[in-house]
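Tokenise the fold.
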Amino acid sequence: MKHLCTCFFLIIIFTLQISAQPNIIIILTDDQGWGDVSFNGNSNLSTPHIDELANNGIIFNRFFVEPVCSPTRAEILTGRYHVRSGVYSTSRGGERMNADEVTIAQILKNNGYKTAIYGKWHNGMQAPYHPNAKGFDDFYGFASGHWGNYFSPMLEHNGKIVQGNGFLADDLTDHAISYIENNKDHPFFLLLSLNTPHSPMQVPQKYWDGKKDKPLAIHNIYPASEDTMFTKAALAMVENIDDNVGRINAKISQLNLEEETIVIFMSDNGPNGVRWNGGMKGKKGSTDEGGVRVPMAMKWKGHIRPGIKTETIASGIDILPTLLDLVGIDHVYSNPIDGISLKSILNENSSEADRYLFQFWQKRTSVRSQYFRLDDQDRLYHMQLDSGQVRDVQQDYPEQYQAMLSAKKDWVDNVASLLDYDSSRPITIGYPGFEFHQIPARDAEFSGNIHRSNRHPNCTFLSNWTALNDEIYWNVDIVEEGDFSVEIFYTCPEEDVGSSFELTCGDARITSKITVAFDPPFTGAINDIYPRMESDTKDFKSMSIGEFRLSKGPQKLSLKALDIPGNSVMDFRLLMLRRVK
């Protein structure tokens, strides 16, 4: 009886410790610039719900990330510069973090947290790069960068293909709200990774109606380069984001979780177009100030004094160490991190000692200190006086210039040089513990007459498969041998029905035949409010083609036609391999 009482007491103590840990919600948007919020002075739009987070928490007014999506996301997750984690691109495998990278989700999960991500992942599709393999219990969204349709699109839920429900940002927020409700009595980490205002430019009509005919009050510093209709489309999408942030705020308040929940709002890079951005030079893809400075606000009622606006420079690499510090987790890092905890400035508005932050993309490196930026051409700018980076001041500040040149060279030589631009790294299949293994057209190589539907491969399909010597293939690594069933996602018009094909992987082989026509119309672009850069999209039909046993090791996974009675075999979108238990 004494032992039972002791165990019961320990269970109570453990439960109290767990319940004392605050929840964490990160709302991460896609291609929203520093200037795309009204709390930073943009009178072209209204973001009252995002402003509420900022005004009742702390604004990090000089918060920096990387110029594009995948690198920033890797840095938020790991606290390390993305070049250390192997991220060198935004598609075709270059977006994957190295398998040994440890994410904040893994750390929190190991310390009693429930974890979920809803939305865009963009750091790898197949395990061990998939979010479910990186510490997230629940994932609903898409793993690629671009997505071609935001209205009830094809998505995945923990690896399984599913259909979205309505406008994607709203749908993702619906899932986030349900998650908060279902986990209100247990500490949770929620990453709501919204896909907007990234193109394609789509938004429910009411938001566009409020913007399309309204003149812009302020413009970019280079107004001749601004496409006003694109700007209006982006701002309409941001106002939809704001309404969804309001829904999250309301749910937290309704459940009396405000004092138990840390909420962070931020974006992953600068604006995806030339529009008002506080007079800064640069946009998405640029290592200049405007390409890497983003809105960032943090609220924790009762713990962070409201109304703080700090000018201390900070970065996406600081998210992980700051949050672990706030929730009291003393983690021993297997890989050294680059970020620092910002806890000391949350209530005191004090300044940290000056430091250097590095932005890197496509072998271009820019360095930021508290007051200066050394750009990728080694020009020095005083950022407090010259946000547009007009006047090179290296002659005025020779010591600062030499110090930043030296720091840049050291970082490039000892950190950026570690990056391996290896596009041949194989796709993994059969990772232990995972049932679903997506093999998309996005990651395929192909030969012969086959075409990709768009130069941006993320949500593309392959067409013009017209000859017997045409081939679609992937370099794969079977991590653990086993039996797998296979589905293929295709379209085919009635006149082309009847083609037979084979799927091979090493010595394993499946033969199948298209027997059912499926030729739907294109549906993605019909919702565009501005011409797209992505592939147009359509629905694809799933067909089971059989099972085969795959042996362990690197192999070539290949699709080839055996007979083509019509004009082409099919338009191909995806293979889904499912481990047979």
